[in-house]
Amino acid sequence: MTESFQQHDAEQIRFFDVAHEGAQVRSTAGVVASGALDQLYGMNPRSVVVLATDQVSRAAAQAVCTLRSPLRRPLLVTDSLPHYFGALDVLIVVGERNSDIAHQALHAADSRGAVTVLAGAEGPVADDAPRNTVVFPVLPTALGTSPARTITAVATVLDLLEEDSRLVVQRLESTADVIDVEVETLAPERDLSVNPGRQLREHVSGARIIHTGNRAIAEVVATLWTLKGLPAAAADVAELDGLIPEPDPFHDPFLDGPAAVVPLKAVIWAAELQGVPGALEQKCAEITPGPLAEALTLITRGYAATTYQNDPEDF
User: Fold this and answer.
1) Is the peptide bond before 70 cis (omega within 30 degrees of 0)?
2) Strand runs (DSSP E) across 215-279, as ranges?
3) What is the CA radius of gyration of the chain?
4) How far apart are CA 209 and CA 266, in angstroms?
5) Where would I find the H helices in 144-195?
6) 142-168: pLDDT as tens digits
7) Which terminal CB of the chain, N or C, has fewer other CB atoms within 10 Å?
8) 181/290 Cα distance (integer angstroms)
9) Domain spans of the chain?
10) Which is a GO BP term held by this UniProt record (predicted)?
11) Coil, strand or helix: which one is 151?
C-alpha cells in the first residue's frame, strides 16, 4: 500500500506541468486581450521567423507549420537569426533554454526595427529583453516544458496578422477549456479503465514505439517521449507498410518465453488508418474548436502518458 501511495505522489509531481497546459493557452489569450500584440493586425511581413531554443519547442513550432499548411507567408523555424532578417520580418523566440543566441537575436532584430515576441523561460533573456519586445508571462507554478505555450504563441502571431484580436481570444479560451477537460480525464488518480493516458502508456509498455497519423501531433509526441525516457519515432503511415508484423496469436510468453525481437507498436494520432497491425488510435472524445485545439488536446494526452509508471495500480 505504501508503495502505491509513493508511486501516486511521484506521478502527481510529474503530472504538474501537464496539468497547466490549459492555463498556458489561457495565458496567451490574456496577452492578446491586453492589446500587447495589436501592432500585428494588418501587417504583411516578409516572413515570420521562429527561433527555438530546445527540441520540444522546435517540434512544437514546426507543428504549427504543418497544421497551417499551405501557409499564407513564409514561416521559418530555426536556431539562429537568418542573415536576411530585417524590419520587414517578425521574430518569435520560444523555448525553455536561456541561450546567448536567443538573447543576441532579440536585440539584433529589435535594432533592425522588427517586431519581436518572446515566449521563453524566466531568466536573463527575458530580464534583458528589448523594451519593445512582447514578453509572454511565465506561469509562476509551471517549471517544465510546455508544447501548448509554444504552439499557441506561434499560431496566435500568425492569426493576429489577419484576424480581429477578439476572435483570437475567444478561440484560445475555448481551446483552453477543451484542454482542461482532457486534463481532468488524465489525472493520476484515475485508473487504467477510465484514463486514456494510462491506456496509451499501457499499450506501448515493453515495445519499440512509432507515432503516425497526424504528422504535427506525432512529431511533437515522439520528441516529448524520447526526452522523457521513452524512445520513440514519428513516421508517415506509408512508411509503415510491412514494417509492423501481425502479432502471433499462438505465442504464449509463459510457455514460449519472451519474443525474439522487442515488438514494434504504433500509435495513430487523429486519423483512421487501416492495415497497421496492433495500432492504438488516439482521438478527441469531444468536438474541438478546430484543428489546433484537437492537436493541443491530443499532445497533452501524449505528454501525460510520460508521467505514469509502466504498471499503474488502482489507488
Assistant:
1) yes
2) 232-234, 264-269
3) 21
4) 6
5) 147-160, 165-186
6) 888 999 999 999 999 999 999 999 999
7) N
8) 16
9) 2-180, 189-288
10) carbohydrate derivative metabolic process
11) helix
pLDDT given at position 262: 73
The burial of 63, by beta-carbon neighbours within 10 Å (0-12 exposed, 13-18 middle, 19 or more buried), is given as: buried
Q: Is the dihedral of CA 284, 285, 289, 290 positive or negative?
A: positive
Q: Within a 13 Å sphere around the CA of 298, how many CA atoms are in the beta-carbon half? A: 31
Residue 289 has pLDDT above 90, yes or no: no
The dihedral of CA 165, 166, 167, 171: what is its sign?
A: positive
Structure letter (DSSP) for residue 136: P
For 143, the grid coordinates are 517549471
Give the pairing type, strands 115-120 and 89-95.
parallel
Instruction: Write down the pLDDT at residue 315.
Output: 30
Distance between CA 301 and CA 313 in Å, rounded?
19
Strand partners, 95: 120
| Cell reading at 145 | 516544458
pLDDT the model gives residue 300:
99
Distance of CA 241 to the CA centre of its chain: 27
The angle subtended at Cα 243 by Cα 242 and Cα 247, nearest 5°, is 85
In sequence order, what DSSP letters do the residues of 234-280 get, joined into one string?
A: E--GGGGTTTSPPP-TT--HHHH-S-SS--EEEEEESS--SS-TT-E
What dotted CATH number matches 2-180? 3.40.50.10490
In the DSSP assignment, the letter for residue 265 is: E
Query: Is the Cβ–Cβ distance between 277 and 290 less than 8 Å?
Result: no
Helix 147-160 vs helix 291-305: angle between axes, to the nearest 10 degrees?
Answer: 170
Query: For the chain, what is the largest distance between any 2 Cα atoms, rounded to a whole number of angstroms?
Result: 71
Per the CB < 8 A criterion, the answer to whether 32 and 165 are in contact is yes
The burial of 246, by beta-carbon neighbours within 10 Å (0-12 exposed, 13-18 middle, 19 or more buried), is given as: exposed
Strongest mean pLDDT among 24-38, 241-255, 266-280, 285-299: 24-38
